[in-house]
Amino acid sequence: MNNIELIETYLDNVKKTGASDSVFLAYKNDLDTLKDFLGENSIILMSKSSIMDYINFLRDNFTNNTVVRKLNSFKNFYKILAQEKKVDSGLLEDLKNFKQEFSIPEVLTEDELEMLFRACEPTEKGKRDILVIKLLLKTGMQLNGVLELKTEDVTEESIAFEKNNKKYLVKVDEELKGFIVTYKNSSICGDKKLFDGLSRQNFFARVKKYQREAGIDREINPAMLRNTAMYSFIEEGTTMRELKERLDYVNIGMSGIYKIRNKSDIKKVYKKIGIGDWDVSEFN
């Protein structure tokens, strides 16, 4: 059975249990997200690594509450497949209970960013990768949004994009201008789509390679780059209303990521954005 058949069979059984329409539609929506993430890859062949990639994908694209719900839907679906001996039940033991709670957003330090950029290969693709990272940090967009940018929307003067039916125009500084000009003059720049042919999976496979080569001892994910962008915007004096609209966070701080090493940074960020009273001594 393919992914569609497996999901439809599961949803039919959910409906037979007498689940309400709202519960049924929530399951359907959550499993449609899983199906879209997998593409041509089979649910049955998912590994621990691909499950973690799915978790990172959810964290990159949804608020914490939605991530929790979609993961619970996935776990319930996966348990049924395990009971039917279609998948390895042992993989579920590697998944923790995901709770609806705030957690400290992890950001990259300036030193780590410099190490990452230095590790990028000195080729057209390497320079493209640097540009993608810099656009993520400059705009606060999700990775999928950056990869969908049109070539005409990114110029030597500005970056134009739309979020929640609101248009944004970000001014380009001299450093970023140089990267844009270099990439647009390369043989791999797309005519219509700026990063034509570059997929999310391929880009982060390359980032993970750079991370290892740079000697950065923690795994970099899309959410971490967005958190770093958030921190930069806060430092620049961006208002909380603008921040929430631009980054599409229901509540800043709900990015569901591990911990920040620098306690002074934690205090600074949370004092600025006003999210509760945090005891940073917990995050050693």
The number of strands is 2
**What structural class do the secondary elements suggest?**
mainly alpha
Superfamily (CATH H level) name of the largest domain: Intergrase catalytic core
Sequence of secondary-structure elements: HHHHHHHEEHHHHH
**CATH architecture grouping of the largest domain:** Orthogonal Bundle
Low-confidence stretches: 97-102, 249-264, 266-284
**Radius of gyration computed on alpha carbons:** 20 Å
Q: Compute the number of helices.
A: 12
Descriptors for this entry?
DNA polymerase, domain 1; hpI Integrase, Chain A; single chain; 55% helix; 284 residues; mainly alpha; 4% strand
In words, what does this structure look like?
The protein has 284 residues and is mainly alpha-helical. It folds into two domains: 3-94, Tyrosine recombinase, N-terminal domain (DNA polymerase, domain 1); 110-277, Intergrase catalytic core (hpI Integrase, Chain A, Orthogonal Bundle), CATH 1.10.443.10. The protein is 55% helix and 4% strand. The protein is built from twelve helices and two strands; from the N terminus they run αααααααββααααα. The chain has a two-stranded antiparallel ribbon. Helix 1 packs antiparallel against helix 2 (21-38) and helix 2 (21-38) packs across helix 4. The longest helix has 20 residues, at 64-83. It starts with a helix and ends in an 11-residue tail after the last helix. Mean pLDDT is 78; it is low at 97-102, 249-264 and 266-284.
